[in-house]
Amino acid sequence: MSNTIQIAVLGLSLGGVFALMGSGLSLVFGVMRIVNLAHPALIIGGAYVAYWAFRLYGIDPLVMLPVAAVILAVTGIILYKVVFEKDAKAATYSEMTVLLTFAMAMVVEGALGTAFTNTQRVTSPDYATDAIFIGNVFIPTGQLYAGLVSLAIITALALFLKYSRFGYAIRATTQNRDAASLLGVNVNYVSLVSFAIGLGLAGAAGALVSFVFSFFPAKHWEWIAILMSLVVLGGMGSILGTVVASFLLSLIAAFVGAYLGATWSTLTFFVALFVILLVRPQGLFGEKPELA
Amino acid sequence: MANTMDQSAVLAARQAYNESLAARADKTRATWFPIALLIVLLALPALQFVGNYNYLLHLTLFTASYVVMASGWNILGGFAGYISLGHNVFFAIGGYFAGMIFARTGISVIILAPLAGLVAGLLGYLIGRITLKVRGPSFIISSLALVMIARILFDNWEFVGGAAGVSLPANGLPVQWDKLPAYYAFIIMAAFTVWVCYKIKHSKFGLGLRAISKDEIKAESAGIDTRLYKALAFAISAFFVGMAGAVWGGYLTYIRPNIFMAILVSVYMVLMCILGGKGTIAGPIIGAILIVAFNEFFVATLGASEINIFATGVIMALALMFFPLGIVGTLAKAGKLPRILNWD
Fold it and tell me: By C-alpha distance, which of B92, B47, B141 is closest to B243?
């Protein structure tokens, strides 16, 4: 019994980080209808920001989190202006845009790999290797902190979307771009800001990832499918859906890993992605099968 | 009675008109060029009598292998408009199927290649029946998931050597001639693939695929069995990629997941078609020549594989942003396509 609880706790403690990693992807898809396959590669970019700050100056990754977020958000603004502005205006799903983000993922991976090599990296602040015991169930402190910070950021994002005027504009654009535009929302500006926020979330997730997982540039291929499974299961564009899906799938993956071996735990996400796309392409919280 | 007479007269007139159009198209087509190219390529190994041109042969057969794969990919991605980033799975299946039989029985991979292609094609048909239910980005993502699943399965499948793979015996020919079997196999497969692509493009099946790529719902309401057509296109493209995988494994003399299931393999298939011109016959060939040349240039000058990934990504992004129709497509649209490149 306590063994089962232990596995569940370990699974859930990863869910928070996955939720943050996926929510930026979901937001960008919702507003711009762009499946940003470069998102995981950019998360790794954020992780390197935290890694080098820790390695060179001993700065805590949690302190670097806002810095990484801002750096990635600025990158997002540049990328949007240079690459995506044209596609965002069309606001239709297009294979070409997916391939474009795929190419961008390769560019980011290649650049990071050239600069920092494909060595496995991880930041190791004190709490990353510590654990808290509750009874005989232990929670790794690193994952606990990362999960709590993730949930705090996602809550802030949800409140921002729900109550601020700009949040209204973002949600209106997500629901119906043309109607929002008619009502005086500057959809191009909304898209730009949403893309910047999305990548800012990637940067923040990167700082957390840097002490939860070991990472190297080529690791994003694995994460693409993991994050897509979360976002697709949750319903593309639904941030609440992404959060629920993250906890659900990381819980299942933890049990699969515990009973069948660690190799198969990642497979859970890929098989889930495959099955969801075919059985319920709109996901848990999606309203219509938009992607199909 | 008179009515049916009229109808058949109309049909005959229409057929005559279509034939005159086809004849005019035939006149503007330089059929001699691909045939001459094929003869030159078949005669190329004769250079080995006067010197060591192994590197040239290697590059040519490497290009030919990518012509097979990119043209195969083009049947699904170019003709039917379903972009798959997971076709390296079929490359691996072909390679492993032929390679494992070769390692156990000694039957040459070149003889096994068509069989390996059929196995890949059958699997492609079954996977296609499932994944082709979804369109657009969902299909691309499902194809990526397919690669991830296949990679983990192959990495952990002890029978085929897991992540370490299996070594295959070399063909035992003297160094001067040992590339020849794979060379001829790839050249002939490339010619066959291009011929099949041409035939498909000019068949009812090809028209159906084109209709699907333009508007699937209209295609379906026009009476095209879209699910069957798409799955068949998937199977045929998997067949060619699997066949290339079979010979490639034998040529390398080892099969290993990280060679066959590297993401760059499927990216190259996509990129070659986009650079050359998606949905055209000559496009994938031009793309294959360009990419292999780029690849050699980057490996020769810069060496590292990471910078290669970077450069490939940059080329792909630029091509997508400024050249979405590819070389053949852009030239054809401007009416400036040279006759020798008009293979459609």
Answer: B92
Rounded to whole angstroms, what are the CA distances from A225 to A177, A220, A235, B105? 28, 9, 15, 38
Half-sphere exposure of B304 (CA within 13 A, CB side): 14
Q: Is A237 left (phi over 0), alpha (psi -120 to 50) or beta?
A: left
- Give dist(CA B34, CA B19) in Å, integer: 23
pLDDT of residue A141: 86
- Shortest CA distance to B145 belongs to which of A34, A208, A233? A233
Angle between helices A95-116 and B305-322 (to 10 degrees): 150
Residue of B nearest to A111 (CA): B310
- pLDDT at residue A289 tops 50: no
pLDDT > 80? residue A288:
no
Q: Apex CA A241: angle with CA A237 and CA A246, to 5°?
A: 115
Q: Are A2 and A137 spatial neighbours (Cβ–Cβ below 8 Å)? A: yes
Is the Cβ of A91 closer than 8 Å to some Cβ of chain B?
no
Q: Which two tokens stand for residue B119?
A: 């196995």
pLDDT lower than 70: segments of chain B: 1-5, 25-28, 303-304
Mean pLDDT of A214-230: 88
- Looking up tokens 């009515």 gives B3
CA separation for the pair B54, B56 (Å, rounded): 5
* B178 min Cα distance to partner chain A (Å): 35
Contacts of A124 (CB under 8 A, 6+ apart): A54, A211
A264 backbone dihedrals φ, ψ, rounded to 5°:
-80, -10
Q: What's the predicted TM-score (pTM) here?
A: 0.87
Which residue type, as a one-letter code, is found at position A171? R
Residue A251: how many CB atoms within 10 A of its CB?
Answer: 19
To the nearest whole Å, the CA of B143 is away from the closest chain A CA by 9
Q: Do A100 and B85 touch (CB under 8 A)?
A: no
> What gap in Å lies between CA A181 and CA A187, rounded to an integer?
6
Asked whether the beta carbons of residue A35 and residue B317 sit closer than 8 angstroms, the reply is no
The model's confidence at residue A151, banded by pLDDT at 50, 70 and 90, is very high
Rounded Cα distance, A124 and B39, in Å:
63
What is the reported pLDDT for A11? 86
- Residue count (chain B): 344
Is pLDDT of A280 > 50?
A: yes
